[in-house]
Specification:
Helices cover 0% and strands 45% of the residues. The protein has no helices and 5 strands. Strands 3-2-1-4-5 form a 5-stranded antiparallel β-sheet, with no helix packed on it.
Length: 103
């Protein structure tokens, strides 16, 4: 069983599994009218990403200059999601970008 995020840290954890962080775009949409806190990023691509291990997760696609397509290979990266509160606390999380060529 895979739980994202772990439901209750006080429960004994099951077997942990590390995902590769790579997959492909299963479906996507371009968000033109974003929720509060994401206005400065609009428009942006929100996708269902099928990880190589099978699960499908929702994530924002980043670092793209043109259109994306179903089947595009992507990899998980840490990026700024939003800024919160009067002190401008930056919230980081995961997004996906096109897979970079490896040397």
């Amino acid at each position: 069983m895979v739980t994202l995020p772990q439901k209750d840290a006080s429960l004994p954890p099951g077997e942990r599994f590390a995902f590769s962080g790579t997959g492909e775009i299963y479906s996507y949409t371009v968000v033109q009218d974003p929720p509060e806190g994401f206005e400065e990023q609009s428009p942006y691509v929100l996708a269902l990403v099928r990880l190589d291990e099978g699960p499908i997760i929702t994530a924002q696609i980043t670092d793209v200059d043109g259109p994306v397509a179903i089947g595009d290979r992507v990899e998980m990266v840490t990026r700024r999601l939003t800024t919160e509160g009067p002190k401008g606390v930056i919230v980081y999380g995961y997004k996906f970008r096109p897979v970079l060529p490896r040397n």
